[in-house]
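Same chain as my last thread, 158 residues:
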Amino acid sequence: MRLSPTVRHGSALVGIAGTLVLAGCGSDTSSAATQTGTPAPQSTAAATPAAGTADPSAGGAYKDGTYTASGSYQTPQTVEKITVTVTVAQDEVTAVTVTGDPQASETRHYQAQFIEGISAQVVGKKLAEINVSRVSGSSLTSGGFNKAIAAIRTEAKG
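reply #2:
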């Protein structure tokens, strides 16, 4: 794995991990709990299916459809939120859209980097395998994204 250069986030060191880590979750059949309410310092997520229809011929773990979830995450300045929409077909992500809602000016920059790079990292991957740690230099946004994906997995199984 190739390491990216050290990136400074304000005065805090953000890390030197690789650009993206995808972790397989194929044997993990548990689903993440959905939390709602006022954002807390921990990441939270809630999923809402936009449209989901079962595909009996696919025999997959998730229903085909388009799902939306919000995920929040803590930054040094504030709690930030993103909204994630994914389209799933035969357990695979065929499209992803992330919308940011930056509260801090520095967050606007990192969310924009994340939004620009996320599609190339998750489209074509199995929904069960998606778990990002850093995308295009943005590492904190990944926490909100992963929480939203966990909520989407739960919703898509239903």
